[in-house]
Design brief:
The complex is a heterodimer. Chain A has helices spanning 2-28, 35-38, 41-46, 49-58, 65-77, 91-126, 131-145, 148-162, 178-212, 215-222, 227-265, 270-279, 283-311, 314-317. Chain A is mostly helical. The two termini of chain A are 13 Å apart. Chain B is mainly alpha-helical. The chains are: A mainly alpha, B mainly alpha.
């Protein structure tokens, strides 16, 4: 297992370097002069040419782009993501403060999705072509087609405006009041988990169908094993490998979904910080959050690879 | 035939279904006709496409013309889908919004398809160092969550529709490249490719005549499923205000405007969102149908 992991890590190095170049490129492809982002326009007009050059030199903007990238990468490797152009706060602090909020949202959404989708998918495969199966497949296709920002508004309209059961938006820290915190999380979690549920349900169903058609399941049944044991021991474990991979991918992609959902529900997580930074042209913050997104994605992919290798020892040999 | 990749020609002669009576040309259409989901999807998309094409003639009002005497009117006979906060006719704006949605669905996917297929062909056929470099690049792009990268690129280039479409294309091409590469690598081992090589056919001829026609089937499937994702991505960008800029109408942006008036005029946000939902659902129905028709082995891959 250690060798398998070490191999994966080494293979990831060139990819990570390319990723860092892409993230750095985000500030290079900006068509404007970067100095306009650093200094307000009216100040800029009153500054002399030497002053402007001094500001350029201070931020390293007088260096060539490869030099700037090298310095940026060195800082990055030391955990320095720069400072926000707006608040002058270190980007690392902004992320540290807001990441736990997004993490809670992501974990709850994924948890709800798994708790509903896997049993539903298994049941659906087991009763193939039943009414329940048709409904499940239909719902899951709808789930991947619905725009999540719109679903969020529909849920707010139903549960907050019409029924008045839940708050339409806002956030209460978990440490202050856990019950209220969860009440505020219900609608965002429902919104985010719907698309995840749809994917997981579809995949569980099809993976289960495939496994149930395998010879070893027929053999297990033929030798008289009770159906629950056939399902649990023989079918489930094998059917779950692709599902685990996809759940890992989903967690890695969740940050994309939280960008919009946090905006709608006014949750002060990393997604809202990213969207605010985009509008403020605060590119160090945008870059920092993109890096967090990439690291999360790569880490979760690796974790799911480990689980898959554990579930299916054949994987390691390849 | 289980060990070789499924080819478009198999479907065309009905080999995978054991049916071979009809003209090969029509086999795909016949498959789709037998699939009610795909037919519903195709019909809905046809309606959306007609709406987009004929919007200037069938729209009852000018989509950008405000009418301050009749703002936020609920659906009436004058305004079938109501009016927005500036008194603009919602139906007309949705009809014109269909143009943006379809452009967003087709252009980036087309671009991603051309770039992705080319890279996949090169990587799969050339192998070696070129293959390694291309794969590393694809992995790097795939390391970003789609929407995060789309938003970051659009924001960096400047928020407008063109840049949004570029960003969407940039995140979709690795999907094409990966599948084409895998397909080419297995085609490389096929007898007809080895035979072509043995008689001394040049590389461009082998790729163009023997390999390219056989990657068409999976590419059509991926493209059809990518269209829905692209429409959703544009809608999300326009919702955030990073896509289409006012006064041009886009469904995502209409939902955003409506979200401020959810209590007093819920139809403003609900109706355009419905339009996004139905259009994306239709493309996914059609995509699922195409996948079932073109590659029965993919049916179980979710």
């Amino acid at each position: 297992m250690t060798r398998y992991l070490a191999g994966k890590l080494v293979a990831a190095i060139p990819v990570l370097l390319l990723v860092s170049a892409l993230v750095f490129a985000l500030q290079v492809i900006n068509p404007g002069d970067p100095i306009t982002l650093l200094v307000p326009l009216d100040t800029l007009q009153s500054m002399s040419a030497e002053d402007i050059d001094r500001v350029r030199a201070r931020y390293g903007l007088d260096e060539s782009i490869p030099e700037q990238y090298g310095r940026w990468l060195m800082n990055l490797l030391q955990g320095d993501l720069g400072v926000s152009l707006r608040s002058r706060e270190p980007v690392v602090d902004i992320i540290r403060e807001r990441l736990p909020i997004t993490f809670e949202l992501a974990v709850l959404s994924l948890g709800v999705s798994i708790a509903v989708a896997i049993p539903a998918g298994i049941f659906s495969a087991y009763r193939r072509n039943s009414l329940q199966d048709t409904i499940t497949t239909g719902v899951s296709l709808a789930g991947v087609s619905v725009p999540n920002f719109w679903l969020a508004l529909v849920l707010i309209l139903m549960f907050s405006v019409r029924l008045g059961w839940l708050p339409p938006s806002g956030y209460v820290p978990f440490r202050e009041n856990p019950a209220e915190n969860l009440r505020y999380m219900v609608l965002p979690v429902l919104t985010l988990s719907s698309a995840l549920m749809a994917q997981t349900m579809r995949l569980t169903r099809s993976s289960m169908l495939e496994v149930l058609g395998q010879d070893y399941v027929t053999t297990a049944r033929a030798k008289g094993l009770a159906e629950p044991i056939v399902m649990r021991r023989h079918a489930l474990k094998n059917a779950m490998t692709p599902v685990v991979t996809v759940i890992g991918l989903q967690f890695g992609a969740l940050l994309g979904g939280t960008l919009i959902i946090e905006q709608i529900f006014a949750i002060p997580g990393i997604g809202k910080a990213a969207v605010d930074a985009v509008f403020n042209k605060d590119y160090p913050v945008v870059q920092g959050i993109v890096i967090v997104a990439v690291i999360t994605r790569i880490t979760t992919n690796m974790l799911s690879d480990i689980v898959v290798a554990y579930l299916d020892p054949r994987v390691k040999l390849n | 035939m289980n060990d070789r990749p499924l080819l478009l020609s198999d479907v065309a002669i009905g080999r995978e279904s054991g049916y071979s009576g009809a003209k090969p040309k029509w086999a795909l259409a016949r498959h789709l006709r037998r699939n009610p989901k795909a037919m519903i999807g195709a019909c809905v998309l046809l309606v959306v496409a007609m709406a987009a094409l004929t919007a200037p003639w069938i729209a009852p009002y000018d989509p950008a013309e405000p009418d301050f005497a009749d703002t936020m009117s609920p659906p009436t006979f004058q305004h079938l889908l109501g009016t927005d906060d500036l008194g603009r006719d919602q139906l007309s704006r949705i009809l014109f919004g269909a143009r943006v949605a379809l452009t967003a669905g087709l252009l980036p996917v087309g671009l991603a398809c051309v770039v992705g297929v080319s890279l996949g062909l090169i990587a799969g056929y050339a192998g070696g160092k070129i293959d390694k470099a291309i794969v590393a690049f694809l992995d790097a792009v795939l390391a970003f969550p789609d929407l995060v990268l789309i938003i970051a690129i659009t924001a960096a280039l400047g928020p407008n529709l063109r840049n949004a479409l570029i960003a969407i294309a940039f995140t979709s091409f690795p999907g094409f490249a990966r599948v084409v590469r895998a397909q080419v690598m297995s085609l490389n081992e096929q007898d007809f490719v080895i035979a072509a090589r043995a008689v001394g056919a040049r590389d461009y001829k082998i790729v163009g005549r023997h390999i390219l026609p056989n990657v068409v089937a999976p590419v059509i499937v991926i493209a059809s499923l990518a269209v829905g994702g692209a429409i959703l991505a544009e809608a999300a960008l326009s919702y955030l205000g990073l896509g289409v800029q006012p006064p041009q109408a886009s469904w995502g942006q209409m939902v955003n405007t409506g979200s401020s008036f959810l209590r007093i005029a819920p139809w403003m946000a609900i109706v355009p969102g419905m339009a996004i939902f139905i259009t994306v659902l239709a493309t996914n129905f059609l995509g699922d149908g195409l996948r079932d028709a073109l590659d029965p082995r993919l049916r179980n891959s979710g």
